[in-house]
Amino acid sequence: MNMTLFILALFDGIAYAAQVFVVALGLTLIFGVMRILNIAHGSLYAIGAYLTVTLTGVALAAGAPPLLTLPLMLVSAVLIGVILGGPIEWLLLRRIYDKPEVLQLLVTFAVFMILEDVQRLVWGSQPYFQAAALQSLGNVTVFGVTYTVYQLILLPLVALGLLIGLRFFLRHTVIGKLIMATTEDREAAQSIGIDADRVFLLTFIVGAALAGLGGALASPTTSILPGMGADMIVLSFAVVATAGLGQIGGAAVTALMIGLGRSFAVYIWPEAASLVPYLIMVLVLLVRPEGLFGSPSARKI
Amino acid sequence: MKKLLGTTLICASLPFAAFAQEKPESIKIGIATFLTGSASVFGVPARDAADLIVKNINEAGGIEGVPVEVSYIDEGAGAETLTSEFRRLVESENVDVMFAAISSGNCTTIAPLAEDLQVPNFLWDCGTQRIFEEDDYKYVFRTQANATPEMLAAVLYLLQEKPDFSTIAVVNQDYAWGRDSWDIFSTALKAMKPDVEVVGEFFPKFGSADFSTEISRLQGLRPDVILSTSWGGDLDTFVQQASQRGLMNSSTFVLPLAESSLERLGSSLPAGHIVGARGDHYFLHPARRDDQDFKDFVDQFQESTGSVPIYSVFHMAQAFAALEAVYARAIEENGGAWPDEDQLLAAMEGLEFQGYGNPITIREDNQGIEDQLMGTSVQSGEYPFATLENIVIYDGDDLTAPVGEDSIEWVGSLDSSFAESAGSETYEN
Fold it and tell me: In this predicted complex, what is the ipTM?
């Protein structure tokens, strides 16, 4: 592989990793704070994409310039977090925090199934495609290969911004510190007056919004169609499990590993491209069952 | 003597009594189609078509005077659910005929099950050529073509429209259809144009939402031709992303299943790319579009769904056309009386019927012989999406492997003269 191909593969890998990371970020945040593996995250991602396409269509029909569709992605993400994330935590999840993990999985899976049907009820089974945001930013050519500015520059910048922003939020703001304290020890946090219920609600809303944002960001580059949520949740789980559950920085590194691994496979060994993300996961978990950045925990037997 | 004569008369009349089936209250049909998951982009329009066709049949008095009832199975629920639901419909609901399925994987599962349950089953949309090449069936029929003529038509059209190309790459979905269709296509291509070089083979996972890396690699490789037998959302995404990044300006795309994506792709599919229709299925079918029944169906479908009919819709219509034709033929051959199951099955061999394309014949191995429509995309401005020009409809009989022959071996035995010997009809637009 010559240097040109190496650089191209690097660009492709980073763009792919950025997309996956945004979705995995919400999943790992929710697990890190709430210890819930939220399978419904996939549906929130899909509905984020559908909602963005719908809002974009309305805005464009009303004569809005294509660039305005970019902030609509944030609007979609916030709506997903507040309208869907909030009620899911408030009405369902807070009833099962002290229940066995398998029940939590079943409940979030049930929500996933319900939301899949809601999605079909609202948007039907036909695919949607709305690339106005991507087209408005144009293309750039590198070594004779045309990339979209959206994928090559915007997506990685958004992913990096989210990583830095979330870490700053958790470590340097009052609400973030309350979340961290509740994550460490919920009972102790409550004993010093932290409203853990409110912290969990806020965390889930932010996590759900990140899922919605992932879908919103994906919407200009892909067909929005039934089943997209299931595909993304599998890949996000691979990232989160490989990183170590709840590891935000680890999720970034793992998404990059998976993105680059897949990209270099396409260039060198295309047959293995589909396999690489899961191969990386298996190899890491064989060596470190707790994940790359996870820490081993004692387990009762 | 009288007693002997009476007994003789009764015995003599028994065979006729056996043939004198009473008309049933209804003909029950079970249909397997994708109602959920990414393949529902095919399955739901087909279900809509079935509802529309059944409504039309029943309003016209039913099939030979008997109303039709349909039940659906969602293939998206997985193979296990499909088989248990298939069994339930046959054993508990006593369906008369099954239409199953879209997925080739499901068809290979369903075919032996239908045989075991002794229920006539129409393979109404799946493409694998292996079904009748690897097994013999009494109860299983395919009311359309298989993958072999579908791929051969694409090869012939490519050789005709772009005879001087020298390099090709493939981007197919990583599952049975993607692999098998490439196997047929590449074998036929090598047989008819041995100097072609395959410069890239990419098999992204089924349901992939991102083809960016493959597109970058293809831009570096710059093949003359890029084949993709993908369908549904995968094909839409691939074409959209390739178009956005200019790949469609540097390579000619061959998309044998893209007729079903034309409307969804809108302006993303530029002019000059090769599009196939999996049979001769096209809402502007050059030989049928002026026929009143064709126009009525297209209008009705558009009115009820808001979309133009795609090939899964036409395949569903063909299955119903086959059903109507076989009952008509079996009744005629039974002297006007309602046929029993064996008579119905016997009437399938050599059955000729017509959906909304050219006539189809069921061959002695139960494989349907269906013509193949290929065309080149053009953005004429008449529709908000690409339509087809330079349409060629190939004779399905010439493109289908002979009875008893393995498709891969057969296409491998062809040579460049095959392109001239295969029958075809050319239309300007």
Answer: 0.86
Residue with tokens 């970034």: A252
Q: B204: phi > 0 → left, psi -120 to 50 → alpha, else beta; which?
A: beta
Residues with Cβ within 8 Å of residue A111, at least 6 apart in sequence: A39, A40, A43, A88, A92
**For residue B43, what is the nearest residue in chain A, using CA coordinates?**
A125
Token pair recorded at residue B63 = 């099939």
Cβ-based contacts of A4 with chain B (< 8 Å): 220
The tens digit of pLDDT for each residue in B233-253 reads: 899 999 999 999 999 999 999
Distance from CA of A273 to the nearest CA of B (A): 7
**How far apart, in whole angstroms, are the C-alpha atoms of residue A146 and residue B216?**
7
- The H or E element spanning position B236 is helix B232-244
CA distance A183 to chain B (A): 34
Calculate the dihedral angle through the C-alpha atoms of B177, B183, B185, B187, rounding to the nearest 10 degrees: -170
Separation of alpha carbons B124 and B144, rounded Å? 7
Nearest to B209 among A120, A144, A231 (CB): A231
CB contact under 8 A, A116 and B36: yes
Give the whole-angstrom CA distance, residue B134 versus residue B409: 13
User: What does the buried/exposed string (b/e) look like for B213-242 if buried means 16 or more CB atoms within 10 Å of the residue's CB?
Assistant: bbbbbbbeeebbbbbbbbbbbbbbbbbbbb
Are A258 and A238 spatial neighbours (Cβ–Cβ below 8 Å)? yes
Phi-psi region of B307 (alpha: psi -120 to 50; beta: other; left: phi over 0): beta
Burial code (b: 16+ CB inside 10 Å, e: under 16) for B137-159 equals bebbbbbbbbbbbbbbbbbbbbb
Nearest to B276 by CA among B311, B248, B250: B311
Distance from CA of A88 to the nearest CA of B (A): 24
Any CB–CB contact under 8 A between B305 and chain A? no
| B44 shares contact with chain A (CB less than 8 Å) | yes
Please name the residue of chain A whose CA is at the shortest distance from the CA of residue B170: A270
pLDDT in tens, A25-84: 999 999 888 888 899 999 999 999 999 999 999 999 999 998 888 999 999 999 999 999
B302 contacts on A by Cβ (under 8 Å) = none
Half-sphere exposure (Cβ direction) of B175: Cα atoms closer than 13 Å: 13
Is B36's CB within 8 Å of A146's CB?
Answer: no
pLDDT for residue B240:
93
The answer to whether the CB atoms of B236 and A129 lie below 8 A apart is yes
To the nearest whole angstrom, how far is the Cα of A97 from the nearest Cα of chain B? Answer: 30
| Cross-chain residue pair B202–A12, CB shorter than 8 Å | no
Strand partners of residue B142? B123
- Helix, strand, coil percentages, rounded to 5, for chain B: 45, 15, 35
pTM score of the predicted model = 0.88
